[in-house]
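To whoever is on call:

I kicked off a structure prediction for a single chain this morning and the downstream step that reads the tokens threw a length-mismatch warning. I double-checked the sequence; it's 242 residues and nothing unusual in it as far as I can see. Pasting both halves so you can look.
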Amino acid sequence: MEYKEQLDTLRQQMPIGIRHGLELLRKTNGDIVAARTLFEEELIAIIISKTSVSQETAQKHLQAANYDMPKTLVSIDEERFSLPERILRNAKNREEALSLLARNLADAKGIKRNYWLPLDQLQHLSPVQRCLLVVMEWLEYEDYEGFDHGIYFYVDIVVTQHETMLLLPDVAASIRLGRNRSDALMERYKNKPSPGKKQFHVGNVINKDKKFVRTMSIFKENRMLIIDRLYEIATNNIAVFY
């Protein structure tokens, strides 16, 4: 192979592929130092295009990461952005970003879980911090347990956040009305005997009740609006999560 010895040396020094290494060595007539320089210039150009940092900054991080591109980009991000900012930038979508931001906040504040967060013990947090934890925890609970159970999970606290912070009164009303309708149906059927040998479950009645289903549908239809509104609040107040 042409330039085999030089290629082996070059690849020991830098993480470069065989084909690309040979291409650079041919351009430089086998000069390893010159090939290294060309490769570094190519990587620096890529880094600048991805991050808009200066050439000096790109070179510094690239060399510190031993020319590993993913590590270089992570290093630059860590220098330029706080952890909350990196979470928002790197998450797959808004909901994942908010979930990671909430978990990072709960860990940073030392809030202990009994599987779920105690949403009635967050008074020491700022309004934005409390809103994030309350809303995201409730959404995760509702995802896991269902709307018919979510309406019993710190519902007064949750409704208040939707009304006062997210400014979504219709969503808040749907959650409250769902709870009220569920309560009314449980009261109506609490002493109802089971027909024959078949066991009676009031939950089946609730989840088929048209009025209850309508309240649940309003919430489901607006779920992404909740995420978008909360994301806007978080990004506009990112400093409170440092």
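Update from on-call: the warning came from a stale cache, not from the record. Cleared it. Sanity check on the structure: The two ends are 55 Å apart (CA to CA).
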